[in-house]
Amino acid sequence: MTNKVVIYSSTLGKTRKIANHIAKELGADAFDLKKQTVIDLSEYNHIIFGTGIHAGKPYRPVVDFLENNKNQFKGKKRSLFVSCRTDGEKGEEQIKKISEALGISDAFFFPGKGEKGEGGIPTSVEDFIKEMSRR
Ligand SMILES: Cc1cc2nc3c(=O)[nH]c(=O)nc-3n(C[C@H](O)[C@H](O)[C@H](O)COP(=O)(O)O)c2cc1C
């Protein structure tokens, strides 16, 4: 069994809502980088990052955390989800750029316009949770 953690940054609250839902479903811990930037990752082997996007860029606290904690990621799986408004092909292009910039190839995006389930959570989040539980 992998021990998972969700680490996120949110400005308007959408990423927070999605991150907390994912953490609850996976039985994972969740950390908000706006509240805590020093996180001991030694007990986790799968780190799931979450961020919104402003002007094509992921949020600064996530960028900084990734930059400042490289030594903590050794031998651990990393995944990324992005809460955004751009969907379709443009959304694919956008997530590709962000995934490359952050160095996390296992990357997914949840466009706000998409279908919503309970509590306004995009339905694609449920597929993401299934994927993550297999990692
Ligand atoms: C100023 C501003 C710029 C944004 N720029 C983008 C963008 O370039 N691409 C995109 O897909 N979404 C963009 N969005 C949409 C947000 O990324 C999206 O609403 C996200 O869910 C916000 O997450 P949060 O509520 O956790 O902050 C932008 C939103 C704002 C307010």
What is the strand and helix layout of this fold?
Blueprint: E1 4-9, H1 14-26, E2 29-32, E3 46-54, E4 57-58, H2 60-68, E5 77-84, H3 88-102, E6 107-111, H4 124-134
Parallel strand pairs: 1-2, 1-3, 3-5, 5-6
Antiparallel strand pairs: 3-4
The protein binds flavin mononucleotide.
Flavin mononucleotide binds at residues 10-16, 52-56, 83-86, 94, 112.
Can you count the helices? 4
**Class in CATH?**
Alpha Beta
* CATH homologous superfamily label: Flavodoxin domain
Task: Determine Rg (CA atoms, Å).
Answer: 14 Å
Ligand identities: flavin mononucleotide
Fraction of residues in H or I helices: 25-40%
Kindly report the average pLDDT value.
95
The count of domains is 1
Query: What is the CATH topology classification name?
Result: Rossmann fold
Overall shape: it is globular
* CATH architectural grouping: 3-Layer(aba) Sandwich
Say how many strands there are.
6
Distance between the termini: 9 Å
What labels would you give this structure?
135 residues; alpha/beta; Rossmann fold; six-stranded mixed sheet; 36% helix; globular; binds flavin mononucleotide
Question: Would you write up a description of this structure?
Answer:
There is one protein chain. By secondary structure, this protein is of the alpha/beta class. The chain has one domain: Rossmann fold (3-Layer(aba) Sandwich), CATH 3.40.50. It contains 4 helices and 6 strands, in the order E-H-E-E-E-H-E-H-E-H. It has helices spanning 14-26, 60-68, 88-102, 124-134, and strands at residues 4-9, 29-32, 46-54, 57-58, 77-84, 107-111. A hairpin with a 2-residue loop joins strand 3 and strand 4 (57-58). Helix 1 (14-26) packs across helix 4. The longest helix has 15 residues, at 88-102. The site of flavin mononucleotide has 18 residues, from helix 1, strand 3 and strand 5. Flavin mononucleotide binds next to helix 1, strand 3 and strand 5.
